[in-house]
Amino acid sequence: MMEEPVRLPVAAALLSLVACTESTEGTTPKLEGLINPLQRLVTPARVCNAGGGAAGWRLELIGSRFTPVPRDALTDTPSVELPRISLSGPSDYTLPEDHLFFARTELMRMDLPTRDSTPSNVLPPGTYTVAVTNPLGGTSELEGALRVVPPPVITSITAPQGFHYSAGSPLVIEGSGFRSDALPLIVLQREGEEDQPLFTLTVVSDTRIETEVPPATPEGTYAVTLTNPEGCAVTRPQALTVAYAPLGTLSVSPRGGPANSDTAVTLTSTAAAFTDGTGTHEVYLVAPVKTDPGQTVNIPLYDVTYVSSTQLKATVPTCSGFDARPVTDPTCPGGIVPGTYGLIVADPSGAFGTLPASSGFTVSP
């Protein structure tokens, strides 16, 4: 006797899905568009036949008169029969019922299975007509509404000019399935570090991309992940090893200076590695400043001067930090927090060296 109050409201809710139409018999839907939410302004919608997660890629169907009907409304297991969605083109395919979702009469969603979903289905690349058929009859087709593309493939990654610490290092990525009409997202990945996006890139063709490794990228071996705008991605593990020409063993003299004034120093290399006349040497103290004592940053030394292939002269901004010189406040409010810190030295040739804090420069209180 307690089943009726539960079952009847369920039936009423199901019937309300079709109550807004004049008739549930033979209503013909109207399909006006198909959208990949990752690229809402792209027509026809593009979708990759791989990736997409466990259910596949979520797509949206826009139109009118999408009309589900209640099924078994007066039983213990009421349900709704949704409009059928099918594709025709290089291959014919009908979406499983559990991959269809009704939002309102103007919007439905579907999860398109791929090679990597469960269940899996690999649609051949090409252009497809999409059809919506209401349960009680009536079909609407939209020709060329969907373009299926294969996932990108990376076959090689090369740095033809090697790596330059102080400037972007050209990088060439070759493969297939690249988008010449839209820029992909490319990131370098290494365990324990944040992803490093590559910002400067040109898609030369669907088989070649030219980009740059950003300046000062830490040395090490990186995986490279390329993601096309429609969502499909490829990762090539241990694809790129970033390494700079070494400057030899470095030392600094004097080994320290007071916090209330800047300090002139000499940097010496055991190798004849410093070059002259090809650009500017960059030297940084890796330390925090008083305005943000919890954040370690690269503080550039100023007046960096080439002396010889083994020596540079520079000034450590122990008092000025990042502030404009001269600093007239004797408390040096933007100066470097007292402590012992390492240095980074970059030669215009692209060579690179570090001086660890254990043998670095000490800022005294």
From TrEMBL:
| A Pfam family it matches | TIG
User: Do you know which InterPro entries this protein is assigned to?
Assistant: Ig-like_fold, Ig_E-set, IPT_dom
Report the CDD domains cross-referenced here.
IPT
Q: Identify the SUPFAM superfamilies for this entry.
A: E set domains
Q: Which residues form the IPT/TIG domain?
A: 152-230
Protein name as it appears in the record = IPT/TIG domain-containing protein
Q: Which organism is it from?
A: Corallococcus aberystwythensis
Q: Which lineage do the record's taxonomy fields give for this organism?
A: Bacteria, Pseudomonadati, Myxococcota, Myxococcia, Myxococcales
